[in-house]
Design goal:
By secondary structure, the protein is of the alpha+beta class. The chain is 47% helix and 9% strand. Helix 1 packs antiparallel against helix 2. It starts with 12 loop residues before the first strand and ends in a 9-residue tail after the last helix.
Length: 337
């Protein structure tokens, strides 16, 4: 995997590789693996992320992880910093365990999750550490074969993709009968040739910022305008202190589309809406479960990007407006929806 920009899509599924440094291995003793697992479990609980597969060697950590609203960067920082501090306390010394950057590819799970799991479980074989996936202790392969119970691992999604309940075990055996092809390995490691870091169809590419040149990027005020018109609320009400559910829904939809399209960060749109970012994040998660159709990229496709007052407002102007709004409503920093 080569250096590339970070892609944050709430609910996105990622292939993550975090490598260690040349100075020391990531894991030196059996208790190191236990420490890492406890840190990883805490990160999953705290961020709402789901882990679909894992493999950790002494040189690198491989994950198939689905994040919630908390970005992958924050998730990885949580895991790396807490594990590193635990090792440092045990050894009584300082020093880096991990390379600064991790590598990641965002995937379309419907198309590539089983291929990614296949690859991750074959990493020890591909790296020459063992002859068979079942001979390597530190991967989720054993959970998928039911040889080991891992409560914090989410196997259900991939198993359902393999077939009906009675057929899943055999389907997994067929999947793992041979190593992934070099072409498949290259895809899950790097993404698509024309869209590095992305592995999926046009919708995923658009969400990640790889839009066709003919499309016009929406501005923040266009999204606010279109969401207000779609949900039959006013801009003034959305920016007010009211906690009515229909306004909370509108704010959640605005924030989701603004952040997913890379127009502003959650913190920036929260300031503009006069909300606390952590509270707004929870609101988004709640309403995405209740009304998922509003949280799709094509939910606003029928709207013309005309903006308020018939003119478009740039992202830069929007963020400046957000700063002013934040100062104007500085007293409103309680946990409101």
């Amino acid at each position: 995997m080569s250096y590339r920009r970070r892609i944050h899509i709430p609910g996105g599924t990622y292939h993550v590789v975090q490598r260690g440094t040349k100075q020391r291995p990531i894991f030196s003793h059996a208790e190191d693996y236990e420490l890492f697992e406890s840190v990883l479990q805490a990160a999953l609980r705290s961020t709402g992320a789901r882990l679909h597969a894992y493999c950790w060697t002494t040189e690198a950590i491989y994950l198939a992880v689905q994040i919630d609203e908390i970005s992958l960067g924050h998730f990885m920082q949580w895991v790396k910093s807490r594990y590193a501090r635990g090792i440092q306390r045990k050894l009584g010394e300082r020093g880096h365990l991990f390379q600064v950057r991790y590598d990641s590819v965002i995937i379309d799970p419907k198309m590539y999750l089983t291929s990614l799991i296949h690859y991750i479980h074959y990493v020890p074989v591909l790296k020459g550490l063992t002859d068979r996936p079942e001979d390597f202790a530190y991967s989720s392969h054993h959970a998928y074969t039911n040889a080991r119970e891992v409560p914090w691992l989410h196997c259900g999604t991939a198993r359902r993709m393999l077939g009906k309940r009675d057929d899943q075990a055999q389907a997994y055996q067929v999947l793992m009968a041979e190593a992934p092809t070099p072409e498949t390995a290259k895809l899950v490691e790097r993404g698509m040739p024309k869209a590095p870091g992305i592995l999926g169809g046009p919708e995923l590419a658009e969400a990640a910022g790889h839009r066709p040149k003919r499309s016009t990027r929406m501005t923040p005020d266009q999204i606010i305008h279109d969401v207000c018109r779609m949900l039959d609320v006013t801009r003034e009400d959305v920016l007010s202190k009211s906690r009515l559910r229909r306004l909370a829904l509108a704010r959640a939809v605005i924030a989701w589309h603004t952040t997913v399209r890379g127009i502003a960060t959650l913190a920036e749109i929260s300031r503009y809406l006069g909300r606390v970012s952590s509270t707004l994040s929870k609101t988004i998660t709640s309403y995405r479960k209740r009304q998922p159709d509003l949280f799709k990229l094509d939910a606003l496709s029928h709207m013309m990007p005309i903006g308020l007052g018939g003119h478009a407002v740039s992202s830069e102007d929007f963020l400046d407006m957000g700063q002013s709004a934040a100062h104007a409503s500085g007293a409103e920093h309680d946990a409101m929806y």
